[in-house]
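[job 0417] fold request received: Transcriptional regulator, IclR family
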Amino acid sequence: MSVLDALESGPASLAQLVQITGLARPTAHRLAVALERHRMVTRDSQGRFVLGPRLGELSIATGEDRLLAVASPVLVQLRDLTGESAQLYRRQGDVRVCVAASERTSGLRDTVPVGSELPMNAGSAAQVLLAWEDPDRIRRSLVGARFTAASLAQVRRRRWAQSVAEREQGVASVSAPVSGPGGRVIAAVSVSGPIERLTRSPGRMHSQAILSAAEKISESLHSVEGH
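[job 0417] inference complete; emitting structure tokens
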């Protein structure tokens, strides 16, 4: 814990770790390398120790229940308002996972069961989850994608995305970003349904509803964090 505490304020060389923690050099080295093996610590381009990706994954897992508790009633409202199925997606590596959904109860609908893994190269939720990533990651993810860098720039500008038959024939969708504390995009809220109802410009119909749903979830998360 003292090694992780030391890295909280930024990157540190082994010598700096020794100085901050007061641990003997071999001990500090052994602990830092063991933490690195578990991805709790990693190295930057200069070889200094920095906090690793596993910590972010764990913090997402702790936030998951709160996100679902906050999002579930909003998805029901969104479904009732639009008359279409509503979903919440999170990114996990190269896929996006449906972590919550509220289905349209009758008629033709786009059903995405909770737990479904969908690709990151097509669909409005994929665009939203990718649009605010760092440029390198965006560049890599655009290889083979059904959308372009220009469309992601448009998503960032208007804060919603739409897709028409991008992931699946006959299906259209609209999505907007949910931001966690610190303003980072942590999820995408979507409505999806047949093109016959959503038309070829689904954003014109549902962008306002989707934006206000995303805002509602984000604000609730921020207020919980503030308490």
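[job 0417] notes: The longest helix spans residues 53-82. Strands lie at 41-43, 49-51, 85-92, 95-102, 117-119, 161-164, 171-179, 185-194.
[job 0417] exit 0
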